[in-house]
Design goal:
- The chain is α/β, with parallel strands linked by helices.
- The protein folds into two domains: 152 residues, Protein tyrosine phosphatase superfamily (Protein-Tyrosine Phosphatase, Chain A, Alpha-Beta Complex); 112 residues.
- Helices cover 56% and strands 6% of the residues.
- It has a six-stranded mixed sheet with strand order 1-2-3-6-4-5.
Length: 319
């Protein structure tokens, strides 16, 4: 046999074997559940909920302490993108030759401009890139879903499957909607994204946060008026979701430097309001649209208790 032809034969056989192995390793697609991209869960000191979603993109919780940043460096990460509202630990990251980029977003969705910034950052900054929120379960995975749709060919249903794997609650409908409705930003939209990515972004201050909580309360009052169901003519006001977003608003505010400067009394009121909103979310989420009279009274009581904490805060601290 001619040796060059023999070499071609073995090379072709090897390629077929690799293709067969790769095909066998693919998870089966049942038609009802989207095939999840090859996402690997990792373990690393100082980081929770750590995943490798692609060769370039990692997802997880806020890194805490030297061991966490050392873990990222050992993974080869070069850039950290925080979508959390708190100030990134830029100085500690720099000790480990890591760049921080701050693109904060809320629990109610990802605006198109923010999505374009995330995509541009993931495409142009030195990688691999680690994306995080606080716990690495909700906002971070949603941002990663958008990024991977833009850079790794994921489809919206694959992004949704990834978010479920990461632990993103289905009550965060806006985060899932951001991925379901995602469209790749146009070249023109990407050119409008500033080239400079700040390591610490300007975030809403204490007053703005309180205004946002008041706005969330307006939604919850409309839900309560409708018997703790979706109000007529306002299909986007899902009772459990509104209670959850109120809880998250209280929790986020406790981490704000301005809130912490007001002392333990102020933070105690926030914790009390958060606890009542948490219980309200659990009640509304578990009972859905079948609330009986006892559950309705319980929902009213929890809402009133959270409102009393707000009133106490306003009375003592508003001015």
């Amino acid at each position: 046999m001619n040796f060059p032809n023999l070499a071609k034969f073995f090379r072709a056989a090897a390629i077929c074997a690799v293709v067969a192995i790769a095909t066998a390793a693919e998870p089966s697609d049942t038609g009802s559940t989207p095939m999840l991209p090859k996402v690997g869960r990792l373990q690393a000191p100082g980081i929770d909920n750590l995943f490798r979603t692609t060769d370039r993109i990692y997802s997880g919780s806020q890194p805490g302490g030297d061991e966490a940043f050392a873990s990222l460096r050992n993974l080869g990460v070069k850039t950290i993108i925080s979508v959390d509202g708190t100030r990134p630990d830029v100085e500690r990251a720099a000790k480990f030759q890591l760049r921080y980029v701050h693109i904060p977003l809320g629990y109610n969705g990802i605006p198109a401009e923010t999505a374009a910034r995330l995509v541009n950052a993931a495409r142009t900054l030195e990688g691999p890139v680690f994306v995080h929120c606080h716990h690495g379960q909700h906002r971070g995975p949603a941002a990663v879903g958008v990024i991977c749709q833009a850079t790794a060919g994921w489809m919206p249903d694959q992004a949704a499957a990834w978010m479920k794997q990461a632990g993103t609650s289905p009550d965060y409908a806006g985060l899932y909607r951001a991925n379901a409705d995602f469209r790749m930003p146009t070249a023109e939209a990407l050119t409008r994204v500033p080239d400079a990515f700040p390591s610490r972004a300007e975030v809403s201050g204490l007053v703005d946060a309180m205004v946002a909580i008041d706005h969330r309360w307006d939604h919850l009052k409309a839900v309560q008026k409708a018997g703790w169901r979706v109000p007529p003519g306002q299909p986007d006001l899902i009772p459990a979701t509104e209670a959850l977003l109120l809880r998250e608003a209280y929790r986020e505010l406790q981490r704000d430097a301005g809130a912490q400067a007001k002392g333990d009394t102020f933070l105690g009121l926030l914790r009390k309001a958060e606890s009542n909103a948490k219980d309200l979310h659990a009640l509304l989420g578990s009972r859905a649209s079948t609330l009986d009279e006892a559950a309705l009274r319980r929902a009213d009581a929890l809402s009133e208790a959270a409102g009393e904490a707000c009133a106490g805060c306003h009375k003592k601290f508003r001015n």
